[in-house]
Amino acid sequence: MFRFKVCVILLAAFYLPPSEAIKCKDEILINAPTESDRFCVFRDVTWRKGVAEPVFEQPIGPRVAFVDSNLTSIPDSFFAQAPRVETLVANNVHLKQLTIKNGMQQVYAEGNSIEQLIVDGGKSLKELYLSKNPNFKNLESLSPLVGLEKLDLSDTGIESSPETIDFGAFEKMPNLTVLRLANDQLHYVENANRVTLPNLKVLDLQGNPIIPANFEMSIFRDMPKLEELDMHNTLMSELSVSPNIRDDLPALKKINIGGMHLPCRFMRALLDELKLKEIEVVGASATASTKCNIGFQAMDGLCCSNDGWAPPPPPTTLTTTQKPEDGPTPPVLTTTKAPQPGPDTPKPKKDSETGGEGGGSSTVVIVSVIVAIILLIGVGVFVAIYLKRRNEATHKRVPGQESNDNL
Description:
This protein is α/β, with parallel strands linked by helices. 19% of the residues lie in helices and 18% in strands. It has helices at residues 2-14, 76-81, 264-276, 351-354, 359-394, 401-406; strands spanning 25-28, 38-43, 46-47, 63-67, 70-71, 87-89, 97-101, 106-108, 116-120, 127-129, 150-152, 164-166, 178-180, 188-190, 202-204, 228-230, 254-256, 280-281, 296-299, 302-305, 317-319, 332-334.
């Protein structure tokens, strides 16, 4: 009897009741990839490795989201009950490990602490969003994802080598059309083996403090379909560009060069070249009012490094060109440049040297008149003082004159 009681007590102490099944709710997810899509949403799910996995109740649809949850990884029990998941949203749920299963097409796992990526048959995955995972560094773990079309690795710790990204890391992703590498603290951007990314259309490098010494725009020649290039806030003070930018970027339609430290002389030439090639410059506008930091000045809505450059003066000469065979043509506003002084070209004299034609002679006349007036006033004052003193001397009484008069 005593042994029976002991067994009952032990069973009661170590007995774990079955976990209550977690059921999702069908709803439209706020900030979902597609606003009209409905998701099977799991809320307030908490689990960490080493603890019994939660039980997920079926049915689970093809679009699943974890919201307001705390998970170190997605439990295997979930994948066992949800073999048909195509879209998985697990943003800001404290993930440290992410598993990609076969059949998944879109995975959103932004704002986590992911360190490890496990790919278990991810050939069907087309979109992967891992931005704001500062602990994710392993680029090699992405290589099995050969079907990727969109990849966001912004604000992560990825690098091919210290502070370097080499486009060779994406060689096995021929379908890649969008690649975002913003704010990854990259100093060097390379393509050592001249790997071609045949379908890449959008490349985001903004916010990386790229060192310009080893960077050339020719690196993009192996991206023949690149249409949008974002280099905003890359802080580069120089840029190596071919005379014809289309040699480097044959398909480019839009570029963002705001926040760079390019000298104004170079910026002016670059903006003119981009305009000539009909490439849109994000934020550029001839009428925009822009405030720049000290040492920079505004140019067409952007800021450039002030290296003593000043904008050219506006056109001042109006010339009329006529075609003898077609008759008169309307006036054309052109800018006439002053001839450059050569060894045989006399220097133009200033007004002070030649006397001018109007302004110089008028000044001389005015000065002469003023001097004459001052002289006349001085002479008049001198004469008046002289006459006054003479008059006083004439009427002064001689001593003893009064007594003689009395006699």
